[in-house]
Amino acid sequence: MTNPLYDAVLGQHAGLGKPLLHLPDGETLSYAQMAGRVAQFAGVLDEAGLRKGDRLALQAPKSPDALALYLACLRTGVVFLPLNTAYTAREIEYFLEDAEPRLVVCDPSMADALMPIAQAAGASLLTMGEQGTGSFADAAETAAPSAVVAACETDDLACILYTSGTTGRSKGAMLTQGNLLSNAQALAALWAFSRDDVLLHALPIFHAHGLFVACNVVMLRSGSMIWLPRFDTEAVLAALPRATTMMGVPTFYTRLLDSPEFNRARVGHMRLFTSGSAPLLAETHAAFSQRTGHAILERYGMTETGMNTSNPYEGERRAGTVGLPLPGVTVRVTDPETGAVLPAGQTGMIEVRGPNVFSGYWRMPEKTAEELRDTGFFITGDLGFISPDGYVTIVGRQKDLIITGGFNVYPKEIELVLDGWETVLESAVIGVKHPDFGEAVVAVVVPQPGATVDVQALLASAGAELAKYKIPKRIFVVDALPRNTMGKVQKAALRERYAQTFVTED
Ligand code: AMP
Predict the structure, then answer these.
(1) Which residue is closest in CA terms to ligand 1's atom 4?
(2) What is the pLDDT of residue 1?
(3) What percent of the chain lies above the pLDDT cut of 70?
(4) Do 363 and 482 lie in a common domain?
(5) Given this model, what pLDDT does residue 438 score?
(6) Cα(276) to centroid of ligand 1, in Å?
(7) Same domain, 226 and 243
(8) E strands of 356-470, at which residues?
(9) Do 309 and 197 fall into the same domain?
(10) Residue at 39 is within a domain
């Protein structure tokens, strides 16, 4: 009897005395200690009546116990459902009604608000605090550790991860053991992870990046992680000398570059920095490489698919691109209207097929049918193109495409022009309602520290580089762009903020 994913990430290392986690207080947690904790946690799940296929929802701060609970779910075949720690009780209500978990585990501070919601959804509730406190840990003290590892197949559901969609209802992506295992194996091999690796882990673990890409890959190879509760520049700078690798979202790297203490001496020994979850500006890539001598390796993935493409470990890491399809993954670009496959260089819808692609949206067969073709290709919603030598470039989400006066405008093209202006740190281009054009192009720019953006001069310079219909009709200057925890610019929030720009009252 086997449990492919659990055996690969923990079962096979259950006797190892080497550190899995280096904790902020200087303590370590070995693989063997983690395996013991996971067996205790599996005992709690057993006693709470959870069986293979039941769901468990976790909304709790990042902690070794939160990781142990994920692993206990894999071990018992319970479907793990991690929830963003920023969600309010009202938002959680939707997820509990939709997923019908048997058990909800939350931060003690959320217990009062979530108890009635959990009860209404037919779930029991236990708590898990950041420091190993709470009623779940208490139950683990007395529960008999489970001695069995549930037999699972690669097709069995391992996790449901809700999409971070900023518009419309969030959808539960059903990920199987095989999806997660194949992706971890592909990445561990491609990025040359080994048992000697020490990954600096400052990502949240309610998302595919921090949980599957980081933890699964490291554990598959019995490496170690420096476990930080969140990204804090000082803490990361202090930990870097002990790390060999780091995975981050682009904002991690721009924040590090803001610190004069982030230099070649501090990271000369590092093996790899990877970036994903949001676009890494070519400018950041260049600044990083100039400061440290390291070329950040950018890769591309999403909740529904795990990772799809990666720049090479050996070979050219091309700034502004997300690299080549992972082994076993097929990436193609199609005409968004007709679905016809487009030739290299043409921009269209990115579609992916491979063992990483999810099995569908939880209890949403129509949505699944809309986005997952019978041929196995998933329609990602990202627009992009593939170079003749296979590198994929993303130009943005389809829902961010602007149609002005009948012309298609890809925000990324305009953002790149604006970002090239010396007083501009970064920009976001959106479409807002316009009485004549349907939508009008609007830019929101953040100045470089200490600089002032001369909007008229910026418009004049954009005029020299862009066709007239692509030039922003208005440019707003702001201190910062709204971002979510994964560093993604929240364009829906910007569209809402500037919705009335061209709407005249009559
Ligand atoms: P999520 O499902 O929250 O992981 O978000 C997935 C989306 O993030 C993708 O569909 C892309 O739009 C975006 N994304 C992820 N990685 C990258 C990247 N390296 N460059 C640009 N966009 C990215």
Answers:
(1) 302
(2) 66
(3) 98
(4) no
(5) 85
(6) 7
(7) yes
(8) 378-386, 392-397, 402-404, 407-409, 424-434, 438-447
(9) yes
(10) yes
Q: Whose CA is nearest to atom 3 of ligand 1?
A: 164
Using the mean position of ligand 1's atoms as its centre, give its distance from the Cα of residue 447 in Å. Answer: 25
Pocket of ligand 1 (CB under 6 A): 163-164, 208, 276-279, 298, 300-303, 322, 380, 382, 394, 397, 486
Structure tokens at 216: 């699964």
Q: How far is the CA of 307 from the centre of ligand 1 (A)?
A: 10
Residue whose token pair is 């260049």: 286
CATH of the domain at 434: 3.30.300.30
Confidence of residue 378 (pLDDT cuts 50, 70, 90): very high
Tokens of 421: 């202006």
277 Cα: distance to centroid of ligand 1 (angstroms) = 4
309 alpha carbon – ligand 1 mean position (Å): 11
Domain's final residue, options 126, 152, 178: 152
Of 332, 365, 397, the domain-final residue? 397
Q: At what angle do helices 135-142 and 31-47 cross, to 10 degrees?
A: 90
Model confidence at 83, in pLDDT bands (50, 70, 90)?
very high
391 and 410 fall within a common domain: no
Distance CA 360, CA 374 (A): 12
The verdict on pTM exceeding 0.90 is yes
For atom 7 of ligand 1, the residue with the nearest CA is 302
Atom of ligand 1 minimally distant from the CA of 163: 2
- State pLDDT tens for residues 251-286: 899 999 999 999 999 999 999 999 999 999 898 999
CA 411 to chain centre: 21
Amino acid at 154: T
